[in-house]
UniProtKB/TrEMBL annotation:
Listed GO CC annotations: mitochondrion
InterPro entries: ClpP/crotonase-like_dom_sf (IPR029045), Enoyl-CoA_hydra/iso (IPR001753)
Taxonomic superkingdom: Eukaryota
Basic residues bias locations: 1-10, 40-68
Name of the protein: Uncharacterized protein
One GO process term, biological-process aspect: fatty acid beta-oxidation
Annotated spans, Disordered: 1-79
Length: 361
């Protein structure tokens, strides 16, 4: 529904309403300190049709009992993502679950290339909270693109990084939203799998790294990596640390220092992706869901506690440094060379109206 009239809808801070067996306090005990966005309290019990207030707005929000209107360029074959129960729906992110299954699908659809703005990171976090609030009914989450293009996401929206077009206040909000989302995925008690349909640079790679598993389609010219150096930006410290956990210190160093994107086969050889499937959306969805369904059959408590042992040290250190890292990155983005380099990237992208950090798709 569009326009300035008032209607009732599920909003971000409603989604993470707690069930008694899975309270936020319980999650804090199990997973350590959570970002502030994960610790808000609400009065209503979570339900896909539970609404706590009304608000007048001009953005499009899809209610659980309405038909979802796909954005331009969205895939028409995302049956798994659109069927069953709607757990969350916003401008760019939706989460749905099969009526009888334990697997939910989080779909990102921000045409043309899923570039990740402040709002996208906030909505990704809200979608994850919605899926977690549905536990134990939902036990696993597939993260996928809803666009037809062969990509996962083109990475961060450069308009959020290019100092002349933003402000320090906006950037700090962006950084906290981004870091909060990545840390939340890293800690999540859900089994998470990134279904990577093709190109996956920078912020998209960081999101995939924070999932438990990465399945990638062998799309033409598809590549994945933390390529910030090639764009004139330093790779964020904790992104490097997470990459090193996945592929090893030497490989992470070589990839990050060179700003190098690696093709699908090499990514699999390095362990950056866990499974490669043919370039077909049904193959990709099927492989991701097969893994998710297998994980969903395991004890959720045992799996979550073991995951906490593995992930908590990095997750806790990462969130503890969020403000210091934001300040350091903002200073770096204001350096003359960085401004010039990002300006050149924007100039190259403007012809194709692309907003992400990927100069080529």
């Amino acid at each position: 529904e569009r326009g300035g009239h008032t209607h009732t809808h599920t909003y971000t801070h409603i989604i993470h309403t707690t069930h008694a067996p899975h309270s936020t306090a319980g999650r804090q005990r199990a997973f350590g300190p959570l970002p502030p966005s994960s610790t808000k309290k609400t009065r209503a019990k979570t339900h896909t049709r539970t609404h706590t207030h009304t608000r007048t707005h001009t953005r499009t929000h899809t209610r659980a009992h309405t038909h979802h209107t796909a954005p331009p360029g969205a895939r028409s074959d995302t049956g798994a993502a659109m069927a069953g129960r709607t757990l969350y729906s916003s401008e760019f992110v939706s989460v749905s679950a099969d009526d009888g299954g334990a697997v939910a699908t989080l779909t990102l659809a921000r045409a043309p290339v899923n570039s990740m703005s402040l709002e996208v990171w906030e909505q990704l976090s809200a979608g994850l909270r919605a899926a977690e609030a549905d536990m134990p009914r939902t036990r696993a989450l597939v993260v996928a693109s809803g666009l037809r293009r062969p990509l996962f996401t083109a990475g961060n929206d450069i308009n959020e990084l290019y100092a002349p077009r933003t402000s320090e206040g906006r950037y700090r909000r962006f950084w906290r939203a981004q870091t909060g989302c990545l840390v939340a995925f890293l800690r999540s008690p859900l089994a998470t799998v990134a279904a990577i349909g093709g190109h996956c640079p920078a912020g998209g790679c960081a999101l995939a790294l924070c999932c438990d598993r990465r399945v990638m389609a062998d799309a033409p010219k598809a590549a994945i990596g933390l390529n910030e150096v090639a764009l004139g930006i330093a790779v964020p410290r904790f992104w490097v640390r997470r990459l090193a956990q996945v592929v090893g210190e030497r490989a992470a160093e070589e990839l990050c220092l060179g700003g190098r994107m690696v093709p699908t086969a090499e990514a699999a050889a390095l362990g950056l992706v866990d499974e490669v499937v043919p370039h077909d959306s049904k193959e990709l969805d099927g492989a991701a869901r097969a893994w998710a369904e297998k994980q969903a059959r395991l004890s959720p408590a045992a799996r979550a506690e073991t995951k906490r042992f593995v992930r908590a040290p990095l997750a806790d250190a990462w969130w503890a440094q969020v403000d210091a890292e934001a300040a350091a990155c903002w200073a770096g983005l204001n350096e003359e060379g960085t401004v010039r380099a990002l300006g050149a990237v924007l100039a190259r992208l403007s012809g194709g109206k692309k907003e992400g950090v990927a100069a080529k798709l």
